[in-house]
Amino acid sequence: MKKIKLFLLAIVVGISLLASQVYSQWSFVGFVTGAGQFPSISVYGPNSLVIAGGPAAGTPAVFKSTNGGTSFTAITGTGITLDVFCVWAVDDNTVYVGDGGNPGGTTGGNAKVYKTTNGGTLWTIILSTGGTAGFINGIVFSKVNSQIGIAQSDPPAGSGVYWIAKTTNNGTTWVTEAPTGSGSASAQNSVFCIDAQFYGFGLNSAPARVGVTANGGTSWTYATVT
């Protein structure tokens, strides 16, 4: 019995030491001000990241760090007209952001995806949802094949089919599609993209659901998250 107790004690001590070692790897390195209440982050290298948001409704703000978050540089530049709610950084020069369609994204609108290829000096609109209720929830590129990416929005009409734009040539051109299935809103930063066939997004509904396609958007499955 004593041996069993000693063995169990050794396991507990070992797990505690392991946990302390794992959690001790996290440390505060810095912060950024002016990103607003709903900032989004994209990490594109061991020490490189971009944070996007806005300090007030209708005011965009994009920041970049190349030293692991110790310090940030504003790269909002010119061209972005609204506060933004999602970001994807490819490298130091190429970054995508998406807005909420109107100041604060409260009711949506003709939501837009912006792209910079010069590190944030100039941003250009590359996609827009049309309608009066679009909201860009996410822009994501595949980790398997960096040529493939998707941008996803709430239904531009306020309800009905969702909106997706897909690229298979590293963002040079995009094709829009309307996933089968309908709703009123989807969840911010819930978009994922495995490859050109398998991608999806979360729905902002109760109960929580996830929309997934495994055949490049030909058909969609909506599963309840329990």
Describe it for me?
By secondary structure, the chain is mostly beta strands. Residues 1-20 have low confidence and may be disordered. It has a four-stranded antiparallel sheet, with no helix packed on it. Strand 17 (209-213) and strand 18 (221-224) form a beta hairpin. It has one helix at residues 2-23, and strands at 40-45, 48-56, 59-65, 73-74, 84-89, 95-99, 112-116, 124-128, 136-141, 149-153, 160-161, 163-167, 175-177, 182-183, 192-193, 199-203, 209-213, 221-224.
The proportion of strand residues reads 35-45%
Strand tally: 18
Q: Supply the number of helical segments.
A: 1
Helix content: under 10%
Main sheet properties:
4 strands, antiparallel
Alpha-carbon distance between the two ends: 42 Å
Form type: globular
Give Rg in angstroms: 21 Å
Indicate the mean pLDDT: 89
Outline the low-pLDDT stretches: 1-20
What strand line-up does the widest sheet have?
A: 1-2-3-4
Task: Output the helix-strand order.
Answer: HEEEEEEEEEEEEEEEEEE
Structural class: mainly beta
What characteristics describe this protein?
226 residues; mainly beta; four-stranded antiparallel beta sheet; 37% strand; disordered N terminus
Layout of SSEs?
Elements: H1 2-23, E1 40-45, E2 48-56, E3 59-65, E4 73-74, E5 84-89, E6 95-99, E7 112-116, E8 124-128, E9 136-141, E10 149-153, E11 160-161, E12 163-167, E13 175-177, E14 182-183, E15 192-193, E16 199-203, E17 209-213, E18 221-224
Antiparallel strand pairs: 1-2, 2-3, 3-4, 5-6, 6-7, 7-8, 9-10, 10-12, 11-14, 12-13, 15-16, 16-17, 17-18
